[in-house]
Amino acid sequence: MRDLIDQLRAGDTYGQLDRLGWEKLLSPFVLTPQRRRELGISCDVDPATEGRLRSFYQAVAAGIEKATGLVTGYLLDLSHEGFGRVTVFTGRLVVVSEVLRDAHRFGFDSIDHLAGRGEALVGAAAALVRAHPEVARDDS
Amino acid sequence: MRDLIDQLRAGDTYGQLDRLGWEKLLSPFVLTPQRRRELGISCDVDPATEGRLRSFYQAVAAGIEKATGLVTGYLLDLSHEGFGRVTVFTGRLVVVSEVLRDAHRFGFDSIDHLAGRGEALVGAAAALVRAHPEVARDDS
């Protein structure tokens, strides 16, 4: 979560978010079932939603860098219809690979859910790096 | 090259390309130095150019599937400014990873150059799969 907050503050060129506390900052990531239903999926994915998707996975990538000491890269390949895939890799090892559906409605039930999901992704990635250290360090 | 031609024909829902020979079909992939200079880079990447980029790397992915017998996935993450990255992976192994610059001007000096580049990517990917068979088959 600290990594996600860092990501959001880093993207805030004019400091407009400085006065917001972390709960306010993360509130757009939380979608109640009702808000979720209200979101249409007939248009392109909203740029703000895509921005939140990128922030979340960049924060996961940053968390993996801290947990493993290795440099990561990430890719998000999203169609206009909200389908796609995100991967985070280190060296030649794919440490996160998720298929995205319904990206229009990207969000979490609660801040706890968000934090838990991020921690689970970082933990699983660190375990993969321990299992395949040679591939994770292959920067060819 | 056969894989690339297959990709192009597969995307041709209405059979408008059926009457074209393979040389005509591949000609948009060839950029002479003069055509390259004429292309502006001030706008978003042209959808047709992005389509050619995707066709090329999908054809590489198809070639890797034939060479290794393994299923591949690919991601293209491209900014509007023409920068980005493309990866092809099999299991948890990244078998192609290229940074893209100047995607507005994606193209090859000649058909031979295109074919050579595709073959080199497939060959390098197959060697990586042989070096790390366990990771390449890890579909967790």
Describe this structure in words.
2 copies of one chain form a homodimer. Chain A has helices at residues 2-10, 22-26, 33-38, 47-68, 111-131, 133-136; strands spanning 73-78, 84-90, 93-100. Chain A is an alpha+beta fold and 140 residues long. Chain A has a single domain, classed as Orthogonal Bundle (Putative cytoplasmic protein). Chain A has a 3-stranded antiparallel β-sheet. In chain A, a hairpin with a 2-residue loop joins β2 (84-90) and β3. The relative contact order of chain A is 0.18. The A-B interface holds A 73, 75-77, 85, 87, 89, 91-95, 97, 128, 132, 134-135 and B 73, 75-77, 85, 87, 89, 91-95, 97, 128, 132, 134-135. Chains A, B: This is Nitrogen fixation protein. Chains A, B: Pfam families: DUF269. Chains A, B: It comes from Protofrankia coriariae.
Q: Biggest β-sheet of chain A: count, sense, barrel?
A: 3 strands, antiparallel
Helix content of chain A: 40-55%
What is the radius of gyration of chain A computed over CA atoms, rounded to a whole number of angstroms?
A: 16 Å
CATH superfamily of chain A: Protein of unknown function DUF269
Order of helices and strands of chain A: HHHHEEEHH
The CATH level-2 architecture of chain A is identified as Orthogonal Bundle
CATH class of chain A: Mainly Alpha
Q: What portion of residues of chain A belong to β-strands?
A: 15-25%
Counting DSSP E segments of at least 2 residues, the number of strands of chain A comes to 3
For the largest interface, the chains and their residue counts are:
A-B, 17 and 17 residues
What count of structural domains of chain A?
1
Spans where pLDDT lies below 50 across 5 or more residues of chain A: none
Multimeric status of the protein: homodimer
Give the integer mean of the pLDDT values of chain A.
Answer: 88
End-to-end distance of chain A: 32 Å
Supply the helix-strand structural class of chain A: alpha+beta
The backbone outline of chain A, from C-alpha atoms, is globular
CATH-derived topology of chain A: Putative cytoplasmic protein
Biggest sheet of chain A: strands side by side, in what order? 1-2-3
* Helical run tally of chain A: 6
